[in-house]
Structures are given as C-alpha cells and as structure tokens.
C-alpha cells in the first residue's frame, strides 16, 4: 500500500450544549481529522487528544508535531502491506497513542476501502447493529433526572452519569427514586481517592452495573485494593493505555470490566490484541467515547461489532452532541440500537462544505 499524501486538518465544532465532567467543561470539540490518500482512495481518522492535557497527557500541538515530523514521513517513506503492522513499526517512538491512532485509523479505513469491504470485516466483527448507551454530563439534579427519563424512553440500553465528590449520592438517590431498575453506571474520571472509601461505599449501594475510573488516572494498585472493598464491579478507562497495561490490570484485579477507547490504547491493532485477551479471560468489554465527530464515531461503531464487546457503549446518536456533524451520513440510533454504516471502510464521507467552515488549519505532508 503506497501512501501518496497525508492531510492533517484541525477543526473546531460546537457542541449542542456544554459538556461537564469532573475535570472541566467544554463547549466545542477540537479534533485532528487525518486523511490518507493512496492511489485515488481516501481514508479518514480522528485524533481525540485535547488542546490541553486534561484527560491524558497528550495534546493537539504535540500530536500535530509528531504527525508532521515522525509518523507521517515514516509512513510516506515506507508505505505498508497491512495496517496491523504500524503499531510495531512506530513503537520506537514511546507513548503518544492518540497521535499514532489518528493516522493508523485513516490507514485502516483507506485499506478497507481499497479492498471493497467494511472495516468491521477486517476486525472480525459480523454484527450490522450494536446496542448503545448514553453518557450524561453534570447538570442540576432535576435536569439530570429528566434527561435520564428522556433517554430511557428513547430506548438507550444503559445510562452513565458523570460524578465527583459532592455530586454523587444525592444525584444517584434522585435518579434511582424514579428509575430503580435501569442499567445505570457512573464515571468518576479519577475524582476520588482511596481514603474516601466510606463515600465510595455509599455509591456502592445504588445497584450500579459498574463504577468507572473512580481513582487516579494512572493507578492500578489502589483500584485493586478498592475492588476488594466493593460489591460493584470496577471498570477502568484512563488507566488502560496498551494491551500490556490491560493485562496488568486484570492480573492485579484492578478491574473486571474494560472500557476501550481506540485512541487511548494506541489504535485498532492494539484493540484487536486487547479484545483477544479479554475474550480468553471472559472479561466483558465496551466501547467508550470521546465525543467524537462522525469520523471517530464510525470507527467506534465498527470496532464495537467485534464479539468481545458485550456491554452497551458510548456510540449514541451524533445529534445528541452536535447540531451538525462533519459527515454526510447521519449516525443515529433507533430504540437504543446503532446501525453500522454501510459500504466499504467506515462507511461515511466528509461533508466538505461544513468541514471547510469549521477548519482552523490544514497541513499536507507529501
């Protein structure tokens, strides 16, 4: 596979409403959209790093530097026989999984389009639709309960609430008073510490499916200790950055549920390795989200068709996040079910007029 050129496009797309978590509030999505061109065929990837190191340590400026000066030139110089080989080839540059993923995704998409097959076929997925859940940001309690009710009525298969100390027990009590039996999870985004065990035990009483990333964003040991103290299963997110890291978490007992975010773990080849590990151990997986545009969302939908993804993921309707998305195809659920985009590759194409409107800069690496 010969790569002719790589386009790096920085975009800024407004959210339908600000999204608040324990580490801040955002009103718009900043993303790198990568286009790989090979023998007349284009493939697309999305970088999910932030302008500042809030979720993990990667940033958009750092990723752009590496894509322009390291990963991009290496790919142009050597091409690839199959996208699966890129993870190993780029291992000499340590870390930076989100930057690597942005380019690797575009290569996978381009390769699948050249082969005339959906991306899910290359990944071993055979489903044509997937169950999805909704992730709700922090809002006043009454508004949150109303939002939960709305999403339950729309058929979403799981509701996830963002929490932090002081914004947890009262919220959960209010939601459970109205919805005692729905599949409910919480995501703390690392807002708690192990010495808050009494508070975490209160959260443990609300019949949650799992608690996501309660402790430090890079911790395994304290999570393993916490898991022994709670009945509710623990799911890790920020901490899981590679197949080796997932194996270590499972070996230590730091989690029994695995959240996969393709950018965080370093690309689709890493997802395949983690998937096989979790299936072998009987560990349930689900696909997390980073409020992606239609490009990243389509990749997530395809990877979630793999058999190890057994819990509803975060790939909900794009219209919940954006008044207008950057793809021509509308990625929308019906009764909590997301259809897999049809056609070769990820099955979506860019709405070029709108993309031009929201573009901040464009670099082409040849």
How large, in whole angstroms, is the Cα Rg?
Answer: 20 Å
String of helices and strands: EEEHHHHEEHEHEHEHEHEHHEHEHE
- Strand residue content: 15-25%
Share of residues in helices = 25-40%
* Overall pLDDT confidence: 96
Query: Low-confidence stretches at least 5 residues in length (pLDDT < 50)?
Result: none
Q: Number of DSSP helices?
A: 13
User: What is the molecular shape?
Assistant: globular
Tell me what the CATH architecture of the largest domain is. Answer: Alpha-Beta Barrel
**CATH first level of the largest domain: which class?**
Alpha Beta
Query: Going across the major beta sheet, what is the strand order?
Result: 5-6-7-8-9-10-11
Query: What fold name goes in the CATH topology slot of the largest domain?
Result: TIM Barrel
General description of the model:
35% of the residues lie in helices and 21% in strands. The longest helix is centred in the N-terminal third of the chain and has 19 residues, at 60-78. The protein is built from 13 helices and 13 strands. By secondary structure, it is of the alpha/beta class. The protein is globular, with a radius of gyration of 20 Å. The protein has a seven-stranded parallel β-sheet. A four-stranded antiparallel β-sheet has the order 3-2-1-13, with helices on both faces. It folds into two domains: 5-116 and 349-365, Enolase-like, domain 1 (2-Layer Sandwich); 121-339, TIM Barrel (Alpha-Beta Barrel). The mean pLDDT is 96. It has helices at 60-78, 86-89, 97-115, 119-123, 141-153, 169-178, 197-203, 221-227, 243-252, 262-265, 268-281, 294-303, 352-358, and strands at 5-21, 24-38, 41-47, 129-131, 134-136, 159-162, 184-187, 210-212, 233-236, 257-260, 285-287, 337-339, 359-365.
